[in-house]
Amino acid sequence: MSSDSQVIDPDDPTITGERKNDLDDQEDLERACMKQMNYKARRKLQQRIRIEFNISSVLNRQKFLMRLAKALMTFGAPSHRIESQLLSAARILEVDAEFIHIPGVIICSFGDQETKTSEMHFVKCGGRLSLGSLHEVHQIYRQVVHDEISARKATVKLEALMAAKPLYGSFTRCVLAFCLSALICVLAFGGSFVDMWIAGLGATFLCLMQICVATKSQLYANVFEISVTIVISFAARGLSSIRSQIFCYTAISSAGIVGILPGYLILSSSLELASKNIVCGSVKMVYALIYTLFLGFGLQIGSDLYLLFDQGARSQLAALAARMMTAASITGTFVSDNGTFANINHGQPLQGTFTFVSGAPYSAEHIIDGCYRPPTFPWYLQPFPWWTQFIIVPIFSILSSLANLQPFWTIELVVMVVISCVSYAANKVANHFIFNRSDVVSAIGAFAVGLLGNIYSRKMGGTAFTSMVTGVLFLVPSGLSQAGGITAQGNGIDIGGAMIAVTIGITVGLFMSQALVYMFGSRKNAAIFSF
Fold first, then answer.
1. How many CB atoms lie under 10 A from the CB of residue 465?
2. Which pLDDT belongs to residue 253?
3. Could you count the other beta carbons within 10 Å of the beta carbon of residue 12?
4. What is the sign of the dihedral through the CA atoms of 30, 35, 37 and 41?
């Protein structure tokens, strides 16, 4: 074959005219160069290479710790555990570091013992609870701690996780909001089959305003909660004032705004205060209480605004309140004919003014859970029978987990639903024996949740926190319904106290369960990613 007919590659040096400067491989040249050195020069070069490698390695580890801090905040990790988790990660990675967590910011300080200097970084971000992503973060953290992957690869994984799109779109979130409010309406607030649809529509309106308006306008975001609660309360009061009385104001208004209740925020703040983290806990607690008072204020304004236009409804409510509070006062001497009151005043006659209140005013007025339910009403205007809870509670638990961005086809979802059902069952049984003590009832429910979650973490290697969240958040509306509903019998100020009572009970229950599992466990650091 002649040279003229040869096909030449476009990158061939005969066409490009380029020549390679170094024919030898760089590593071979370094090896040959080191052979010509004496021992002292060769030792010095190896030390310099090792220092360069160590510096890059330390920088990668520091970057991983900062990305881990950001990921934990972004995906709603339990804030009272963030500092301890970062410190243990830094200790295992042999990085000299200190961390301070205040709401919205983590301050990372990296020290260098050789040069006696330190470097400070501020990691600032907001976020919301995302169970699926939080589980992924915990798995990456475990892989680094167990030396399965390097800090550099883990950093890349965390950055990809934070850059990923949300698990569910706007339409799916609205559907979930509708279903959750409809189910909690009949489950916790005594709503009927008709009430649940209205409560679901109210929650859908709230979710739409949150996604489409509040996220795009900073000006409206400041008054979003109050404006939405006013609209929902106004509509609920208007529907409940219809002459046939087929709608229940308490059930519709309470269930309609259950999606923006700061249950998780108050829970994390009370956990921080119980962990002696006073600064972070008190700031969050005060914010959550003021936020709750905003909600109560909005509900009250919406109700009063409608009654301003409908004087007939106002007079009917006033007449009902007067009938409910009917009392008779008698002045004189009370003498016991038999030994029934022998323990009072040593059996001596009692003198003074005695007030007698009707023993069963609610049943006389056909009021069940704050709703008018006479026996003449058809089934779709009555509360759901008790056996429906066996169907509604698992469905609500599944939807609640999905609303907190938990992937559907996972074993963790099954565990969450089981723990959540146990939580509700323990709450119901405790409420049957302990009356008017929402804090004690919530503590018993939370103790059951914490026990199962930590045992699952110890025995099956799962993430205790993510498996327990759904069950714990289930206790907030359940506990509030025991405390008189979110409307708190018409007084918006009482909502803050009701929520504090519920969350303090949850906090005590969670810490007691963790202490119990910790006592009988063999590994003393396994439950660090827990409540």
1. 24
2. 87
3. 11
4. positive
